[in-house]
Design goal:
118 residues, alpha/beta, 4-stranded mixed sheet, globular
Length: 118
């Protein structure tokens, strides 16, 4: 048996509609929506946004996303002024880590997304 995919449920925080817009600004495409859940994808990456607000949980959740070109990704998101639009912390420039070059983004719920080019 082979596992085919991993699609985590990600909390939206207190504003489900704002979270959906945020992920679209990051480049994810909505696939479906039903009763407080929304499926998003970009390439081979998928997740399910859940209308769920638990600050302690969100602030302790980290997601790692591999990207093909971290500099292009950074330029794409830096030019969209996401901190002003969504009230998130400033997006740092790409930083070299032992596992690859990385950009961290905290989403509106408080989840830390690690976008990594390895």
């Amino acid at each position: 048996m082979n596992f085919v995919s991993l699609e985590p449920f990600i909390p939206s925080g207190n504003n489900f509609d704002k979270a959906k817009l945020f992920f679209q600004e990051l480049g994810f495409e909505p696939e479906w929506e039903q009763e407080g859940l929304a499926g998003f994808k970009q390439g081979n990456c998928k997740f399910i946004l859940q209308q769920y607000d638990n600050k302690a949980f969100a602030e302790n959740l980290m997601i790692s996303v591999k990207v093909s070109d971290i500099n292009a990704f950074y330029e794409q998101v830096a030019n969209r002024d996401l901190p002003a639009k969504f009230g998130i912390p400033t997006i740092g420039k790409p930083v070299q880590q032992p596992y690859g070059k990385e950009v961290n983004i905290i989403d509106p719920a408080g989840v830390c997304w690690h976008f990594i080019q390895s």
